[in-house]
Amino acid sequence: MALREDQILRYSRQILLREVGGRGQEALLAGGARVDATGASGLTAAAYLVGGGTPVAGVGSLTMGPWSPGFLVSAADVGQPVASALAREVPALNPDAANPQASGGMLAELPSAWSGDAPWVALCGDGARAGVVFRGPEGCVWCFGETVRHLGSPPDGALGGALGALGAVVFQRLRLGLGPALGGRWLVPPGNLEEMELRLCSRCTARQGPASP
Ligand SMILES: [Zn+2]
To answer: How far is the CA of 140 from the centre of ligand 1 (A)?
Structure first.
């Protein structure tokens, strides 16, 4: 898929980045993201993905709550399913990203049911910090599942918004084939980024061998 002239103009800032380039921008436009989220973090992430050219479609049975407006959706969307709200907002923000059949990746606020192709990006929290857990196609599904199973929902408000921006960057990096294939980061107020220790599945634990004394 070659970029059109209007697309080269629209994404010129991204295309100029060494990590993206013309090929990378084509990859972002070709791959989708299924979004299961109604909060500040997930909707902010969706808005950044859409702005960058990733086709986004809402999935899941969640409906927009009174906390949803302000990030991508409006007060009129409260009570609406995430799929229909995004189906209306995404084309308005970027017609390139309007694809109700968007597939090939998932971004969700925890808790969520994970399925389909990578990249997977989970937005979460532990009460004090905001977190993101991610896996590319090479990352272990079971380690990802074991880690997100123990994490709570992401914060709302400004910290949630910042987490969403981080989540979108992580998703785009994985789409471009940039590693690591599995990982997690904590966003600690006011703005520190720290490595998150992942929980390993039993198979990866066995492969690692017993911890050295
Ligand atoms: Zn594993």
So the answer is: 5
Task: Name the amino acid, one letter, at 194.
Answer: E
For 11-27, write each residue's pLDDT tens digit.
Answer: 999 999 988 999 999 99
Q: Contact 71/44 with Cβ under 8 angstroms?
A: yes
Task: Identify the CA nearest to 105 among candidates 59, 154, 40.
Answer: 59
For residue 72, how far is its CA from the centre of ligand 1 (angstroms)?
35
CA of 184 from ligand 1 middle (Å) equals 14
Distance 53 CA to ligand 1 centre (A): 31
Distance from the alpha carbon of residue 188 to the mean position of ligand 1, in angstroms: 26
**pLDDT exceeds cutoff 60 at 90:** yes
pLDDT tens, position by position, 100-109: 677 789 999 9
Query: What topology does CATH give the domain 31-208?
Result: Rossmann fold (3.40.50)
Å from CA of 142 to ligand 1 middle: 5
Q: Is the omega angle on the peptide bond into residue 155 within 30 degrees of 0, that is, cis?
A: no
Domain boundaries, the chain: 31-208
Which amino acid belongs to residue 122? A
